[in-house]
Amino acid sequence: MEKLGIAITGSGSAVPKNHLSNQDLTELVETSDEWITTRTGISQRCLALPSESVSTLAADAGSQAIAAAGIKATDLDLILLATSTPDDLFGSACQIQAALGATKAVAFDLTAACSGFVFGLVTAAQYIRTGVYQNVLLIGADILSRWVDWQDRRTCVLFGDGAGAVVLQANNSDRLLGFSLKSDGTQNRYLNLAYTPSALELLPNVNITQGTYQPITMNGKEVYRFAVQKVPEIIDKALFKAHLTIEQIDWLILHQANQRILNAVAQRLNIPENKVISNLANYGNTSAASIPLALDEAVRQGKIKTHDIIATSGFGAGLTWGAAIFQWGR
User: Fold this and answer.
1) CATH classification (class only), 177-186+217-328
2) Strands (E), 41-94
3) Which of 131, 133, 144, 223 could join 77 via S-S bond, C-beta 3.0 to 4.6 A?
4) 97-111, 207-221, 259-273, 311-325: which has the minimum mean pLDDT?
5) What is the pLDDT of residues 64-74, one digit of tens each?
6) Which residue in the list 22, 135, 255, 279 is annotated as catalytic?
7) Residue 114 annotated among the catalytic residues of the structure
8) Rounded Cα distance, 138 and 110, in Å
9) Which strands, in side-by-side order, build the sheet including 176-183?
10) Would you call 46 a catalytic residue per the annotation?
11) Which of 6, 12, 16 lies closest to 282 in space, CA to CA?
12) pLDDT per residue over 232-272, tens digit each?
């Protein structure tokens, strides 16, 4: 009989070796370790070296996830890369496919900013549930240091670089228990990495624009308000679809944006602190990488065990947000 459920069977992660502490940041902008820690919970972040790329970090995380799942790269049918900072605007997933030697896998990028991993998880699951593919590698990877204004203290203290990955496989019982995804483009202006055009006259009466992307801009108050309101709601919706109560959740893994957001969401959901997984103190906000990075770390520390039920939620630019409830392992 064909297996039409999914199981998440392996994880991996990779971060640059380069660290930037809060103390280091005081040499770049007017700030302090105390100011950053009390407002964000972040102590340091990892920054990609010029020799590192989204593709190299993603391939590293991906190869670990493949090994953890007990399969080979040639077993993969699909590689999904959730990123907003590809090495190539045409996409970086194919470079990862080549680096891994995943010769049978189709590969493409998916862009949903900090919600990318959750959106990717749901997307990957549909390919398996319809019987199209058996083995999918989902990677969340971002190098936001490329797009941060290092003179803007509102944003430069927040972001870091990294990659996290999971392998999804066809399974007799379905371990993706429930999900819900949302978008609201009317609030797009609150968080942007926008293209800025400049006019260019090619010929008389033939005008085009050419330009580049500008550094990240963010209205922190609005993004905080949005996250604290919408994330508990969407987790409730996903739990309802999974026929579960909040008490049945073993772990909460939110997008690692800000410790105050993590605390506020857990409080609203009545989830005790010891069930909340947080590693943003060491990595900052790594966008699409943040959930799989936190997941992999907790799995390797022995915190998350087979059959544990995890509630996860990503939220960010778009604005987009989503939640998924899944059981770890087969």
Assistant:
1) alpha beta
2) 44-46, 78-82
3) 133
4) 207-221
5) 999 999 999 99
6) 255
7) yes
8) 10
9) 176-183, 320-327, 309-316, 251-254
10) no
11) 16
12) 999 999 999 999 999 999 999 999 999 999 999 999 999 99
Q: How far is CA 292 from the centre of its chain?
A: 7
- Rounded distance between C-alpha atoms, residue 24 and residue 16, angstroms: 17
**Residues in the chain, overall count:** 330
Sign of the C-alpha dihedral computed for residues 94, 96, 98 and 104 taken in this order: negative
| Catalytic annotation, pick one of 46, 94, 114, 156 | 114
CATH of 5-176, one of 3.40.47.10, 2.30.29.150, 3.30.420.40, 3.30.200.20: 3.40.47.10
Kindly name the residue from 22, 171, 279, 285 that is annotated as catalytic.
285
Residue 325 sits at the vertex; the CA angle it makes with 320 and 328, to the nearest 5 degrees, is 125
What does the DSSP 8-state code read for residue 92? S
* pLDDT tens, position by position, 172-193: 999 999 999 999 999 999 999 9
243 is catalytic: no
